[in-house]
Design brief:
Length: about 100
């Protein structure tokens, strides 16, 4: 793939991202770029989270989940949530309702 997908995000995602420490933001930006170049990298969810993909990456020793949606027609990736595994899917499901 030669051109990355356009990136956008939900407001809650942007608010959370601003509060993260600089080293975390740097690694998150790298993960966002990987997703923009290859949106199929994440695992596709089913059930109530159908249409959501989740990419996992590490920051120091912490496993971090990055949830996003792919709009193939517009060539756009929409970031929905980022966080640790505990309650991640439950909170994401509540937010998207």
């Amino acid at each position: 793939m030669d051109k990355p997908y356009r990136q956008s995000a939900y407001p809650k995602y942007n608010r959370l991202k601003k509060k993260l420490p600089p080293y975390f933001i740097q690694r998150l930006n790298e993960a966002e770029q990987e997703v923009a170049f290859n949106p199929r990298i994440g695992e596709e969810k089913s059930g109530s989270l159908k249409g959501i993909r989740v990419c996992k990456f590490k920051v120091l020793d912490l496993l971090v989940l990055l949830a996003y949606q792919v709009n193939g027609k517009e060539k756009e990736v929409i970031f929905a949530a980022v966080g640790g595994h505990e309650n991640f899917y439950r909170e994401l499901e509540q937010y998207l309702k």
